[in-house]
Amino acid sequence: MTSPLAAPRARLTPEERRRARTEDVTSVLGALRDPRRLRTEVLAGLVVALALIPEAISFSIIAGVDPRLGLFASFTMAVTIAFLGGRPAMISAATGAVALVIAPVVREHGMDYFIATVILAGIVQVLLGVLGVARLMRFIPRSVMVGFVNALAILIFVAQLPHLTGVSWIVYAMVAAGIAVIVLLPRITTVVPAPLVTIVVLTAVTVAFALDVPDVGDQGELPESLPALFVPDVPLTLETLQIIAPYAVAMALVGLMESLMTAKLVDDVTDTRSDKTRESWGQGVANIVTGFFGGMGGCAMIGQTMINVKASGARTRISTFLAGVFLLILVVGLGDVVATIPMAALVAVMVMVSVGTFDWHSVRPATLRRMPRSETLVMLSTVAVTVVTNNLAYGVVTGVIVAALMFVRRVAHLTEVVDVAHPDEDTRVYAVRGELLWASSNDLVHQFDYVGDPGNVVIDLSDAHVWDASTVATLDAITTKYAAKGKTATIIGLDEASAARHGRLAGHLAAH
User: Highest taxon of the source (predicted)?
Assistant: First the structure.
């Protein structure tokens, strides 16, 4: 069978062209053969590793565990997902969303139950991935995606505020200088990622002038040894399962949702495609591996992923793998050096990531005037819930629910019943137009003149479609009301799918 890549470009379908472009852009071998692309991947991995350190430490604190658990989790997650993930260049590591979900376990039951929860969550993710949970991504509307991106940008920015509170003016000056470097350097050269230059320059200035500013070392103790195999000491009983299962399922769902949404975002940013099913079970395997090495688990990291693909230009699995490797080398082998990195440098990088991530077009007055109010409401509800709860999963679920309600409301108002013909004195023909489902068909029963109509009534559904059992029950109610008046109601014009549904259910739905 001939590969699509071998066919003339003009004869490829749009999907085949995108697949071919994805294979070319994300090819590891292609990057290894191209010194320029390889340099981009290596430097991107280094920048991400430097940005991961304080994040992993802070998420460990949120979870109530030793900082080493977050750092080791970031290493094992990144390295594992580099091989198994379905979205090249996406960064997975310890995250705040996961930390918030499973924090109660370590407080109430101890470390062994905590690690067992991480492992079980990974198993659940593998099962969900195999069952095809990734296909649910098709139900995420564009407005929810825009809200997700904007909420993400806001959360990234808000997360930097603690590092800008109660500090000296020198910190603000350093942040401003870092932002200036990130904005201006790409206009001169893109040989080295601007975020990396910012970190190196501000660290050198801090050390050279012995500036007393908050640094990475202030965030928590860095490990001095490599992660080791860890098997949680918990009884394999139903009671243990009852304790950890609710947290494990919650962690699995939150992690998958955040990872799949991030993968979709990277698809759009890079104009390539990813394997969401592979990403789903890959996340599960990564969490299982992380648990057995004593890590706190995690999922895709949106901020670090944006640093990797948007700020640094990485496109392959090399950058993800090196992010994990560099992280381990930095915290174990070069911990003393890493500890001197000023937080101002990392804050500058993350602030610019938040600015670059936010969809500014979505909030322009011209866009808001043109956009239907329902779409804007969906976007704003996603942003609001995410920012208030600090949980992207809650925001996305809320946005999808609001979008579904807005859609149903809109469809319900598009249904009408029209008196179209009177073939003879004893016959009246009604035309029903629109999409008939529970929201629109509930009022349908009240739109006929049961008393005034003649003996024969024809209900023409040629311009309608029957979507559910509620509509079939409503049509039964209409024919029953006419029969009670000694009249006959005949339904015609059903399309094939509607006729099949009506034929299967009509007369079998008890009235309530």
Answer: Bacteria
